[in-house]
Amino acid sequence: MAGTAPPAWTPAKPIVQLVDVHKSFGTVEVLKGISLDVRKGEVICIIGPSGSGKSTLIRCINALVPVTSGTIRVEGIEVADPKLDKLALRRKVGMVFQQYNLFPHKTALQNVMMAPIHVLGQDRREVEERARALMRKVRLAGKEDSYPGELSGGQQQRVAIARSLAMRPDVMLFDEVTAALDPETVKEVLVTIRELAEDGMTCLLVTHEMNFARDVADHIYFTDRGVIVEHGPPSTFFTAAQDERTRRFLSQVL
Amino acid sequence: MDVIPDWFQRLYESTGLNFTVFYDSYDFQRYLNGLKTTLFLGISTILVSLVIGAVGALLQSGPSRTLRGLVNGYVVLFRNTPPLVQIFFFYFGLGTLLPAAESASGLREPILNNVQWAIISLSLFAGAFNVEIFRSGIEAVPKTTVEAAESLGYTRLKAYLFIILPLALRICLPALNNNLINLLKTTTLAYAIAVPETLYAVKQIWSESQNVFEMMCVLLATYGILVGVLVWIMHRWERALRIPGYGR
User: Major location, coarse class (chain A) (predicted)?
Assistant: First the structure.
């Protein structure tokens, strides 16, 4: 996976590009000029103390939150454009949430099948075949007919990942997806994400799992109070952080 | 063979309790027609008022300020005024303003008859409450669930149809039950514009046979049973919609 990421100096166009993104809620400025690139096949982790704007940042990328200024491009789509075609954007960007947010009135398999049928108008039988394959991929074969309320947190989160993948996105956003899980179930979700990354899926994760970030990420961004304080590949980031704030944060979480 | 008519005939002769509907086929037919009209009124107003509630709640949570204002105005208007006055307004007020055709015998034939006006008026009345009931359900659907639908590319309308409304319905079903039961009973107001529903038919019978007390008993029993059936249907619906592992 690290080998598939192009070196930083190549002119390869990023799949996701943020340039000087600002976001304010009322008078509170949450993002104060964020710029970052994600290239195809890369796994990017965003870490930082709570309240540093990580979730807002990731939610801006699929237009759940409108930006105040700056540009976000996803595969050529201008996210901040007022005439944004949200459907086109969201076909390219999958999102997994901290609280899974499955549709509780539908079975696991139906959750995976719904969007391709309702949104993309794809053939039900073809979608069902794909959904069953995705359920196997996230190691939930046999749970197809269970309702979300009958599944553990880790299982629900893996259904949520399968649900996102069923739309065949180009990039997956993960918003603290293990933060609400028991320690034992965190692992099964991380294994699923790691396999995705190994398959070449472009992933942008907000996470508190430092070991996971060290093992899987190609690049790590550290944010604090709305700015990117420091970034780099895990090899240097965890051992040779330059900024005092990064060092203090790492000393607390590692 | 005619056990029931004979029994009621004998009851009348021995006690003076005169349940004409159970031994006089003419009265029985009148009563049955009234019951049919009540069922027709009840079912059609329940269905129309549910549609009004669902559409109104969608518009009420929508982006258009004008539509939101219109829905709110409608709810205030129909919730703050008595249903009998509304029926009179539609039938005597609006009904006479609308153009009317003339029948072959030269009589005035309005484009909407009293049954149709009753359905319109009662549906709008109950629909105003249904809008508020659906809204309470919609507001209880977690915002994060709606966000998940949005991030999967659902438009507002599709998210409403496939995710928000099915969940909201489950939340607001007990409140909806109450309103639909009230609506079924409120159909008796159609009596006031001579719609031949159960109350109207029974009133005709008791004025001719002078058996007010007996027909009152029949009337109360009829509505008691009708509402009982509706409650039973709604509870079955509630059970059918229950999601394993969700809520209780």
Answer: membrane
